[in-house]
Design goal:
The complex is a heterodimer. Chain A is an alpha/beta fold. Chain A has 15 helices and 11 strands. In chain B, the strands form 2 sheets. Chain B has a 5-stranded mixed barrel. A 3-stranded antiparallel sheet of chain B has the order 2-1-3, with helices on one face. Classes of the chains: A alpha/beta, B alpha+beta. The complex binds zinc ion. The site of zinc ion has 8 residues of chain B, from loops. Zinc ion binds next to loops of chain B.
Chain lengths: 406, 140
């Protein structure tokens, strides 16, 4: 028999309970003139300033990887960021955490652990991506090699839009969702992006008609249902509740988390219409002692509409099979009952690689800090469910975020 | 010449027999000698009982189509096939599942496929399998 284990999460308000105190972001989109390292420094500076700290207060750096090139990745690994931020000789360590699209959740776990265990006082977590300016065929090739087993699935011609197609086909079959209902997901996300000045598609409208009239890329996915690769950067700062209370009236804490790695190969998932969300949600909701009915909003990984619909159902935000229809009815749109992916998501704020999940996490923190501005701030937001997924949707990672006050 | 070390030493030893069988028009999956679990994709140890005593078994080739997609543009450069082509996931009657290619129907399209339908293994020709060792299926 397996021993039952209850994770010893820090109590709310305990001295070393980890706290998000600041965020920084620059707009996502295609910005050829912006350099990789320039993006990192600017996003970091904004987050440090938002946290009301000096750069020299940062004593540990956690890096989220980029996917556009090995040279920039190597610069991250070999501590270039510490030097660029003037922190060489000052920070204890600079380290990368990587689990693809769910990296934001695992980087958060790591940063929170460093704080809770007294290993760090102020941790800077930062990402920068140059996907929007990268060569498209090179990125398609990269995404048909990485995360796809070369022995078993590469010989079928699989690539990432095809994985999206396989998942979408399965989801539509199981749920009976129509093409119009699936398109409504992208339309809802675009409506949120139209309220977010940092979103790639801040100024462009999108309709279901336009989506359904666009070319099929990998059935049943149309061109306007594919993620658009973007340049972008974002950062956040974590510290302890004790440190947070010195400078801030409010911060964001982690009520609990849950996770499930359901596969490596897309072809090996037991049910591509379900993925790992049910298992992960069970753990996360138990740990936090609250669930979807108590949440004010959600920020959930959405590189394809079906991926989001499946997550929303696994998280029990929607009844099984009903997520796309609820999107169609406007439940998750601006002005709807349950605000979801209020930055526009990866599908409309821009897919900044591993950073896409980080952008959602940053938006969740922003909402709970009540800094999302008059147009898209969820009134009096107290609780946010953040969901991330990586690779070929290999895992489901959940962070239960709560607003905390002094 | 290979030395019997008592364990599978590399990916070629692991995957070679599968491709060799495909070239003969046969579909095989790994099986565990200790707990009889049918395993696909092959592993260095049995995912059920963790035994290292593993062999191969021929399967019926009958299964259920979990899902499929027709890729119409953006094929990987290394995959020398002009789109459209159809990729599916088949759950074999023996239990394991795998990513595969689907043959078009008599009309030259894949329009008649639906999720959960019965399919059966229908090997591609030798030249195709030599270049791209994938299992192909067709409507049963
Ligand atoms: Zn076994």
């Amino acid at each position: 028999m397996t021993e039952v284990w209850t994770p010893p999460y820090p109590e709310p308000g305990s001295a070393n309970d980890a706290a998000f105190i600041g965020i920084g972001e620059i707009p996502s989109g295609v910005y050829r003139e912006r350099g990789f390292m320039a993006q990192i420094v600017e996003a970091s500076a904004r987050a440090i300033s938002d946290a009301q700290l000096a750069h020299t207060d940062i004593d540990q750096i956690v890096l989220i990887p980029c996917l556009h090139g090995i040279a920039d990745q190597a610069d991250l690994i070999f501590s270039r960021v510490a030097e660029e931020l003037g922190l060489h000789g000052r920070v204890k360590s600079s380290v990368m955490v990587h689990s693809g699209g769910s990296t934001s959740d695992n980087a958060t776990r790591m940063a929170a652990g460093l704080v809770a265990s007294g290993q760090a006082r102020n941790v800077l977590v930062v990402y920068s991506e140059r996907w929007g300016s990268a060569d498209l065929q090179a990125m398609i090739d990269m995404l048909s090699v990485n995360g796809i087993p070369k022995e078993w699935e590469a010989p079928t011609g699989l690539q990432f839009n095809a994985i999206g197609g396989l998942i979408t086909q399965r989801y539509m079959h199981q749920s009976g969702s129509s093409a119009e209902e699936m398109a409504a997901i992208c339309v809802a996300l675009r409506a949120w992006a139209n309220l977010n000045p940092n979103a790639m598609y801040y100024e462009k409208a999108l309709t279901a008609e336009k989506i359904l009239a666009s070319k099929l890329i990998s059935d049943p996915i149309h061109a306007y249902e594919c993620p658009f690769l973007a340049d972008g950067a974002g950062a956040f700062v974590m510290t302890s509740a004790t440190e947070a209370a010195k400078r801030h009236d409010a911060w964001v804490r982690i009520g609990g988390s849950g996770g499930c790695v359901s596969h490596y190969s897309a072809g090996q998932d037991a049910d591509l219409g379900v993925l790992g969300w049910v298992e992960a949600a069970k753990e996360a909701y138990e740990a936090a002692s609250w669930g979807p009915e108590d949440a004010d909003l959600g920020e959930v990984y959405d590189s394809y509409a079906a991926v989001l619909a499946i997550a929303v159902e696994g998280l029990r935000i929607s009844p099984k099979g009903e997520a796309a229809r609820e999107f169609y009815k406007g439940r998750f749109s601006p002005g709807g009952q349950f605000p979801l992916n209020t930055n526009g998501g990866l599908l409309s704020a821009g897919h900044t690689g591993v950073g896409g999940g980080t952008a959602l996490l940053i938006e969740g923190i922003r909402q709970l800090l009540h800094r999302a501005g008059p147009e898209r701030q969820v009134p009096n937001a107290q609780r946010c469910i953040v969901g991330g997924s990586g690779g070929s949707y290999m895992d489901a990672q959940i962070m239960m975020l709560e607003r905390a006050t002094r | 010449m290979s030395v019997d070390t008592g364990y599978i030493q590399n990916a070629d030893e692991l995957t070679g027999p599968f491709a060799a069988a495909l070239a003969e028009g046969r579909l095989i999956v790994q099986k565990c000698n200790d707990c009889a679990t049918a395993i696909m994709y092959p592993k260095y140890r049995c995912p059920n009982c963790f035994s290292g005593s593993l062999d191969w078994q021929q399967v019926s080739g009958a299964g259920q189509l979990q899902t499929f997609t027709i890729l119409r543009m953006g094929a990987p450069s290394a995959f020398d096939v002009e789109p459209p082509y159809c990729i599916g996931i088949v759950k074999l009657d023996e239990g394991p599942q795998l990513m595969c290619r689907l043959h078009p129907g008599a009309d030259g399209t894949w329009n008649s496929y639906v999720c959960d339908q019965r399919v059966s293994f229908a090997p591609a020709d030798a030249a195709e399998v030599a270049q791209r060792p994938a299992a192909w299926f067709t409507a049963a």
